[in-house]
């Protein structure tokens, strides 16, 4: 069993996060220009065992598909074709950018650091992956609970 990776997909760049080998916590991995994402993943997959890629699913506040999905879905299709043995899961990413910005503010990041998009993209990917881990852990716990 390998790591999990999360992608906070964007039209220009993608934030990436990865779990530790025990899949306990997510850590920021990189920010990659979107056209270079496939090459980055190919290189990463050659070095690390990856079990699954969690892709942030952009939705509006009402839960409907956001406009960003029109860029994400074709790109995800290309990744699935490029990596046919890899499992890709979509996971709701609502509020991750807001939470990432807030975490930077709470962490004492300077105004210039908060204006840079790269750290926010990476942190958003961490939030997506940590939320996914918590959700999956909760589901697994309740699936084995006879009550």
Going across the biggest sheet, name each strand in turn. 3-2-1-4-5
Number of strands: 5
Structural class: alpha/beta
Poorly predicted spans: none
Distance between the termini: 29 Å
Average pLDDT figure = 80
> What gross morphology would you assign?
globular
Approximate helicity band:
40-55%
Number of helices: 5
Percent in strands: 15-25%
Could you state the order of secondary-structure elements as H and E?
EEEHEHEHHH
Rg over CA atoms: 15 Å
Describe the structure.
With 147 residues, the protein is α/β, with parallel strands linked by helices. The protein contains 5 helices and 5 strands. The chain has helices at residues 37-47, 69-82, 96-106, 111-115, 117-144, and strands at residues 3-8, 13-19, 26-33, 50-57, 87-92. A hairpin with a 6-residue loop joins strand 2 and strand 3. Helix 3 (96-106) packs across helix 5. The radius of gyration is 15 Å and the shape is globular.
Could you give a quick summary of the protein structure above?
This protein is α/β, with parallel strands linked by helices and 147 residues long.
């Amino acid at each position: 069993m390998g790591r999990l990776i999360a992608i906070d997909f964007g039209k220009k760049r993608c934030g990436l996060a990865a779990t530790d080998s025990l899949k306990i916590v997510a850590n920021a991995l990189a920010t990659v220009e979107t056209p270079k994402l496939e090459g980055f993943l190919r290189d990463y997959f050659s070095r690390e065992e990856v079990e699954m890629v969690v892709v942030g699913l952009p939705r509006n506040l009402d839960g409907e598909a956001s406009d960003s999905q029109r860029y994400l879905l074709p790109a995800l299709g290309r990744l699935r074709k490029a990596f046919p043995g890899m499992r890709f899961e979509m996971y709701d990413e609502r509020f991750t950018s807001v939470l990432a910005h807030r975490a930077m503010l709470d962490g004492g990041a300077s105004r210039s650091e908060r204006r840079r998009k790269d750290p926010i993209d990476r942190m958003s990917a961490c939030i997506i992956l940590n939320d996914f881990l918590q959700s999956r852990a909760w589901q697994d716990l309740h699936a084995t609970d006879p009550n």
